[in-house]
Amino acid sequence: MTLVDLANPTRFLTLADRVLPWLMASAAILLTAGLYLSASAPDDYQQGATVKIMFVHVPNAWLSMSVWGVMSIAALGTLVWRHPLADVAAKAAAPIGAAFTFLALVTGSLWGRPMWGTYWEWDARLTSVLVLFLMYLGLIALWRAVEDPSRAARAAAILTLVGAINLPIIKFSVDWWNTLHQSASVLRTGGPSMDRSFLIPLLIMAAAFSLLFVTLHLAAMRNEILRRRVRSLQMMQASRITLSNDMDAGSRGQGAHKNGAA
Amino acid sequence: MARRDVMALGSYAYFVVTSYALVGAVVLILSGWIALDYRSQKARLRELEASGIARRSGRRAAEF
Asked: Under a CB-based contact definition with an 8 Å cutoff, are residues A35 and A54 in contact?
């Protein structure tokens, strides 16, 4: 099956139906292994047991940006290639991305309180991630406000691409500005600066959350395709009712005209 | 590793446990919402098809 074949929503639904149980099982296994390794990881010599928050905070933070990246590629698909599933993919990803961003913000806050002495600081990293969260909410509101999905698709795609400017700002905010947030310790030139006892659980949790995202995204895309089918069938039903009402009114009008003539 | 070591979160227990509980709750809510939405869309499609509305292709929309 090629990418072109997947442009057909019916073929996509068939594939999603086959793949989803396997993805769910793989995500569950990886998440269980990741949680076990996270619980078994040693305490950090400076941060103590709070380092365990990293194993859920960092994957959610990575995914908050990656999901917007996926939505940006989908936005290009909508605007440039007019791929039938591009808008479906973007719309389905937005609530999942918003949830990951919310979790990154809250777990970061819970990690910040014992380490920095505050739940929140208006520094560049935290503020730019909060802006990302608000952009997710804005996009969801836009899709909900416009009833016709094809009309909403173009506006949402443009907004998504404009919002993508925030991604490098989030990534490099810790280098460009003086912030409370630590600089990159995994995705950095020169390789990870973290000890293997923390790095391995972190990478497994990141893989588990990524697989969880793929699973939830495919399932949400399937729902969105079905929702659009419901909408088109409801429109067909409404147009049939209107047509039959018009025909009834027309035949009554003709009957009245004949009676009047008699 | 002993169970005591794994669970020894000390004075930070509130922050660590709340973080994991919150992540678990949000993931469960998200998964549940998606699963319920799927059932709801399938039910609505079946209702529409039962009322005699069919796709132009003639295929049943609730099946794939």
From this structure: no
